[in-house]
Design brief:
α12 packs across α15 and α12 crosses α16. The chain has 3 domains: about 90 residues, 3-Layer(aba) Sandwich (Oxidized Rhodanese, domain 1); about 230 residues, Rossmann fold; about 45 residues, no CATH class. A 6-stranded mixed beta sheet has the order 8-7-6-9-11-10, sandwiched between helices. A 5-stranded parallel beta sheet has the order 1-5-4-2-3. It contains 16 helices and 13 strands. Helix content is about 45%, strand content about 15%.
Amino acid sequence: MEEITVEELSRKDADSYVIIDIRDKAAFDYDHIDGAVNIPLSDIYDTALDFDKEYYIYCRSGNISYEAAQTLTEKGYKAYSLKGGYIEWLRKHIANEDIFADKVEESIRSKKFHSKLFSRFAKAIVTYDLIKPNDKIAVCMSGGKDSFLMAKLFQELKKHNKFQFELVFLVMDPGYDPRNREIIERNAHSLGIPITVFESDIFENVFNIEKSPCYICARMRRGYLYAKAKQLGCNKIALGHHYDDVIETILMGMLYGAQIQTMMPILKSTNFKGMELIRPMYLIREDDIKEWRDYNGLRFIQCACKFTDNCTSESCRTSDHVSSKRKKVKELIRSLSKDDPQIEQNIFRSVENVNLSTVIAYKDRRGFRHSFKDIVE
């Protein structure tokens, strides 16, 4: 069994082979190699393939696809693993792609996206009072579509110059594969975003943690971001969570946490005095973000986590209960919305319309529990 490089694949006649992406459907839908078909690893060995066709197989980094191609070769198929996997293809693709920041910026102002993106961004800022004069905001960028769009929206807001505030575009390298960091830096350069990169050893610290490593990693990352932002003189950090993240969190709290709660648009830090967390993408839909990304031909990493370098996305996600639950809730909301498009908006509004006289019990901001029996008419 042999590996094939991205350069070698690009020189082949597309009609002579099939590219198979063995990552899970969520990773495939986020982005994939042009022309690839999705057959997850769990299904690849039971799928009837053509013995006369050549198959080029890839996963995230090329490790699992190597094993899969080897097994298929032993079964008599002409199977080859793409060396370096999707990440190597993405790195080469971005290096060869001409991305023009002014075109991307113009798309945000265009009739096609202004109301879907910038207007909702501005509405969230005004509605939840997220930015005040003389704020210095650390725009935290993970390398994905959400945080890159957030950075461009902040740059657009800055051009309106309605009041003075400062921006720092902050990228933390928690131990990325060098290729992942290169992709983030290339995208930032192409899109005209002057990022400040700092390093940490978070991935090394959580790599051997078996229980909820993603949750622990996320908590540590936020702490490092707060600390670096404060060191740079910032009083706020901005995260790229969007509307769909909010409604999924509401439903997850009810189904798995036995509580009614939401992902707040603004939070005061309990560990870093004077610091706040804001979520200016709060009212923006994920499908609109994807549409903007695809319209501009942009490619971003989905997850640069060290855990996913040696596995398929599905197996990594299901190893963390929180990620697995969020995926199920996302699918549930999508299914319910097919029959009633109002479902998503109703979930969002449910935490805006809480009537304390109609609930059995509630907790106040100090954590004290109150029963409906305690309420005196």
